[in-house]
Specification:
170 residues, 40% strand, mainly beta, 8-stranded mixed beta barrel, 12% helix, 3 helices
Length: 170
């Protein structure tokens, strides 16, 4: 383990605040240990500016999906280190931990990088999707987690998007 990241049990003590059902932290062994803040209900584009904090996507939570957002020059930088099969520990305020396993990594180009309603092109298939189709694909359905950050390319910080999804470990 790296000397920077605490052990999982220590991390749980650091982020727990007694609130059951509220995501307070996300921990991946040897990759990252980040506190999670909730996105304000009326600010769908809000993403925490702190380097080691991830934002829970409010709209996804309304569909029973845990969406975790971060800027690619902050906590989101480590999202690129996630790999298929890795175990994600989601820590709730009451200290409960739910485990998930990475099962999908997808990269897209935003055809209009600054526009939240941009169309997106899947870099592995070339297929094009609307913003609504992207939301449905990554933030609706069965209980799962989706990590999202921007892909910087060609001098554009929001050139594309990285989505890493993880399903519950039975």
């Amino acid at each position: 383990a790296t000397s920077q990241a605490p052990a999982l049990d220590e991390f749980i003590r650091m982020v727990a605040n007694g609130q059951s059902g509220v995501v307070r932290g996300v921990y991946v062994q040897d990759v990252f240990a980040y506190a999670v803040v909730q996105q304000p209900q009326n600010q769908p584009n809000y993403v925490a500016a702190e380097a080691d904090v991830v934002t829970q996507f409010y709209a996804a939570a309304q569909f029973g999906v845990t969406g975790l957002l971060a800027h690619n020059d902050k906590a989101g930088e480590k999202f690129f280190n996630l790999a298929a099969g890795q175990v994600i520990n989601v820590v709730y305020g009451d200290g409960e931990v739910q485990r998930y396993q990475v099962n999908n990594i997808a990269r897209f180009q935003a055809l209009e990088p600054g526009n939240p309603q941009s169309k997106f092109v899947d870099l592995s298939t070339g297929s094009q999707y609307t913003a609504t189709e992207m939301f449905s694909r990554f933030y609706m359905g069965e209980n799962h987690i989706t990590f999202q950050t921007c892909i910087a390319r060609e001098g554009i910080a929001s050139w594309g998007r990285l989505f890493v999804s993880a399903a519950p470990v039975p």
